[in-house]
Amino acid sequence: xxxxxxxxxxxxxxxxxxxxxxxxxxxxxxxxxxxxxxxxxxxxxxxxxxxxxxxxxxxxxx
Length: 62
Fold this sequence. Notes:
- The protein has one domain (2-60).
- It has helices spanning 16-27, 47-60, and strands at 2-3, 6-13, 34-41.
- By secondary structure, it is α+β, with helices and mostly antiparallel strands.
């Protein structure tokens, strides 16, 4: 998301190396004056494990 030259990065990256690449690319985007990095390192997970967590959360939250 960007507004007035401020770019907000959110989400997950599987490794620190990939997170650093993404933030490096983002800094080089024309018009970006400030980068707010909210990316977090999540580790490598597969679709099945993410789906199981989602199902568990839905059951526990009503």
